[in-house]
């Protein structure tokens, strides 16, 4: 899908639900989101999701809406749909079946998008990577027709940070996304949803020696013409770990939030959608420890407040530039003209 450019109109902040899994209830998260003024949720996957009956998701949607929260997206929390790349047809079929269920879940929740990273080519099978990518493209072409029938607006792909997990370079992003073309049939009817990117501001590519070949900002900017949503995360200089945006984490991380937000708006005429949500995606503190689980609320709050502050700073800067560029009328008024 090649972007025609939609001229970005709005950028919103959301939260991905991953860090509460097996730790806090969704209602706990919804209450925190209401307190923080965050209204958009990306539901992260979990093992039971693929087997739960429909009523569970209807109940979750009602609960979210009672807190003023909308589930706008569903996205995998692990690499559990990687079978689409596999040469073993049994693994392919399980991945297809589960992806279809993820699409159904997104529809039940009223979400616009759902997706995953494509998965991994096994390190000892890297010579088969072209065939693996071809299998993935074929599967996504089938799945996007299924998604259209259930009312979604798009499926999403996440660029990663390894040649074993395509797409991981600018060339791979352009090649993969170019393979999907325009999801419209010959009589002009939308027969399939677009395949977009769910970007990540912490993903760049470092080679086997740890040398950065393409920075996280370079890859993010490359992906903008295909991107409908993205993840807010911080990382280190080699993309080896991910974390949030507390004051201490910002000191040791490489992601400058104001720089990212400025980049987003500088490229506003390259986005394929008019409204974009960036979801805070935190791994969270160590799971299952009395000394760490209780710190999750503070971790989410610190990062949300940092992102909100950066967004506000950008808005103030834009307002200031518009004021500075406004025509000055006082000289003509004083001259009586």
How far apart the termini lie comes to 55 Å
CATH architecture: Alpha-Beta Barrel
Portion in strands: 15-25%
CATH topology: TIM Barrel
Helix content: 25-40%
Largest sheet: 8 strands, parallel, barrel
| Cα shape | globular
Q: Which oligomeric form is depicted? A: single chain
Uncertain residue ranges: 326-337
Strand order of the largest sheet: 1-2-3-4-5-6-9-12
- Please give the domain count: 1
Structural commentary:
This protein is of the alpha/beta class. It has one domain (10-335): Alpha-Beta Barrel (TIM Barrel), CATH 3.20.20. It is 40% helix and 16% strand. It is built from 10 helices and 12 strands. The strands form 3 sheets. The protein has an 8-stranded parallel β-barrel with strand order 1-2-3-4-5-6-9-12, surrounded by 5 helices. A two-stranded antiparallel ribbon has the order 7-8. It has a two-stranded antiparallel sheet with strand order 10-11. β1, α1 (26-36) and β2 form a beta-alpha-beta unit. α3 runs parallel beside α4 and α8 crosses α9. The termini are far apart.
Keywords for this entry:
337 residues, alpha/beta, TIM Barrel, 8-stranded parallel β-barrel, 10 helices, 40% helix, disordered C terminus
């Amino acid at each position: 899908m090649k972007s025609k450019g939609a001229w970005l109109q709005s950028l919103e902040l959301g939260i991905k639900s991953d860090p509460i899994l097996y730790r806090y209830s969704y209602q706990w998260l919804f209450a925190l989101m209401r307190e923080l003024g965050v209204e958009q949720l990306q539901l992260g996957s979990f093992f039971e999701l693929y087997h739960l009956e429909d009523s569970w998701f209807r109940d979750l949607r009602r609960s979210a809406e009672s807190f003023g929260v909308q589930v706008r997206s569903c996205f995998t929390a692990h690499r559990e749909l990687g079978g689409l790349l596999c040469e073993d047809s049994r693994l392919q079929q399980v991945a297809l079946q589960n992806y279809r269920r993820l699409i159904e879940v997104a529809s039940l929740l009223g979400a616009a998008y759902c997706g995953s990273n494509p998965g991994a080519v096994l390190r000892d099978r890297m010579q088969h990577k072209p065939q693996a990518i071809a299998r993935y493209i074929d599967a996504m072409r089938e799945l996007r027709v299924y998604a259209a029938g259930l009312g979604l607006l798009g499926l999403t792909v996440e660029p990663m940070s390894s040649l074993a997990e395509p797409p991981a370079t600018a060339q791979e992003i352009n090649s993969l996304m170019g393979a999907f073309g325009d999801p419209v049939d010959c009589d002009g009817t939308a027969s399939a949803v677009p395949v977009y990117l769910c970007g990540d501001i912490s993903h760049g590519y470092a080679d086997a020696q740890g040398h950065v070949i393409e920075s996280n900002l370079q890859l993010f900017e490359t992906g903008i013409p295909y991107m409908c949503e993205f993840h807010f995360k911080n990382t280190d200089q080699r993309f080896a770990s991910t974390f949030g945006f507390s004051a201490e984490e910002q000191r040791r991380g490489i992601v400058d939030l104001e720089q990212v937000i400025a980049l987003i708006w500088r490229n506003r005429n390259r986005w394929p959608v008019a409204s974009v949500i960036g979801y805070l995606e935190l791994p969270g503190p160590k799971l299952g420890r009395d000394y760490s689980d209780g710190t999750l609320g503070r971790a989410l709050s610190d990062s949300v407040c940092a992102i909100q502050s950066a967004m506000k700073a950008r808005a103030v800067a834009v307002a200031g530039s518009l004021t500075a560029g406004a025509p000055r009328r006082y000289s003509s008024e004083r001259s009586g003209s």
